[in-house]
Amino acid sequence: MPYESSSPPPTLADLGPETDLALLAPQLAQFAAVARLEHVTQAAQLLGMPQPTLSRSVARLEAELGVQLLARQGRTVRLTRAGRMLLGSVERALAELERGAEAARAEADPAVGRVAFGFLHTMGSDAVPALLRGFRVGHPQVRFQLVQDYVAAMLERLRAGELDLCLVSPLPDDPDLTTRPLDEQRLYLAVPADHRLAGRRRIRLAEVAEEPFVAVEEGYGLRVITDGFCAEAGFSPRIAFEGEEAETLRGLVAAGLGVALLPPALVPRPGVVELEVTSPRTRRAIGLAWVTGRPLTPPVAAFRDFVLSRRGRLLDHD
Fold first, then answer.
1. Pairing between strand 238-243 and 177-186?
2. Cis? peptide before 50, omega within 30° of 0
3. Which of 8, 27, 120, 220 might form a disulfide with 150, Cβ 3.0–4.6 angstroms?
């Protein structure tokens, strides 16, 4: 139950043994000011508060702790042994708080702040480096924490506040998240070079309904998309091997262990042929997501706006 401002402040005994000593933080900071100056009036002037109020605050702290911290000598005070012990701890705590406050201010600094940015593994070799290079032309000192993960894990970290922005596919349908589509990427059917269909340029996905597939693990966005396209083609893929990265899957395809729906390779992989799928339309939407209603720091907002300005140009279309 909250205390009214006119009520006397609660004591630790009133609040019980589980009370966080952080409740004493204002009194501890005021005690430290008096202890540094060894003068109540001067400390009150420094803190911008009435001297009687400061005196009562220190007296309450002594009562809470059950020990005398200051010995009064006229208008000046001196620390007792207990006061010196407490002051050392308070000074260290205040210094740590100041470091934390400075770090928090730096985090939001438009020029040198930090952006925690999550993205798909398949975006890490080309699209994301190009975004960062373009953004840093105008914001050369903004710092980035880059996280590559599968979509479900990234969105969980986004909701938890560990990430500011996520580049995702498929686009989440969640009222707690704001998502803006950026681009579409064609997915090709990767087959071994000696596969019966390798001489073709285009196929229908139903033509490989009986083939073993290699795919990313369940929970990955590309797996959801692969399963969806196969269902649209009238079959459920028979997954022979699972991996975490597109290049690993491409290696499995090259070894003849299955076929896979994958984004286009930046560099042709020996032993792999990419076929255009005409039915269904195997394209995945890629978008940017952030938590609805959560304030963005200036550097995060600037990067979000920059990424959104790249709509339709995020990827090199084939």
1. unpaired
2. no
3. 220
CA angle (140, 98, 28) in 5-degree steps:
165
Q: Which residue has the tokens 């925690």?
A: 116
> Per-residue pLDDT tens for 75-118?
678 888 888 888 888 888 877 777 776 666 667 676 778 999 99
pLDDT band (50, 70, 90) for residue 62: confident
Residue 35 has pLDDT above 90, yes or no: no
pTM of the model: 0.69
Q: How many percent of the chain have pLDDT more than 90?
A: 54
Cα 144 from Cα 299, distance rounded (Å): 10
- Does residue 299 contact residue 108 with C-beta atoms inside 8 Å? yes
DSSP 296: P
The span from the CA of 245 to the CA of 125, in Å, is 12
CA 185 to chain centre: 25
In the numeric block, the tokens 């022979």 are attached to 240
Helix or strand (DSSP H, E) at 308: helix 298-309
Cα 198 to Cα 132: distance, rounded to the nearest angstrom: 37
Confidence (pLDDT) at 21: 58
Best CA proximity match to 181, nearest among 191, 194, 196, 170: 170
Q: Given the DSSP bridges, would you call strands 260-262 and 188-192 parallel, antiparallel or unpaired? A: antiparallel
Taking the C-alpha atoms of residue 30 and residue 60, their distance in angstroms, rounded to an integer, is 11
CA 4 → CA 1, 9, 181, distances in Å? 10, 9, 49
Beta strands in the chain (DSSP E): 70-73, 76-79, 114-119, 143-148, 165-168, 177-186, 188-192, 202-204, 212-216, 238-243, 260-262, 272-279, 283-291
**pLDDT tier at 121, thresholds 50, 70, 90:** confident
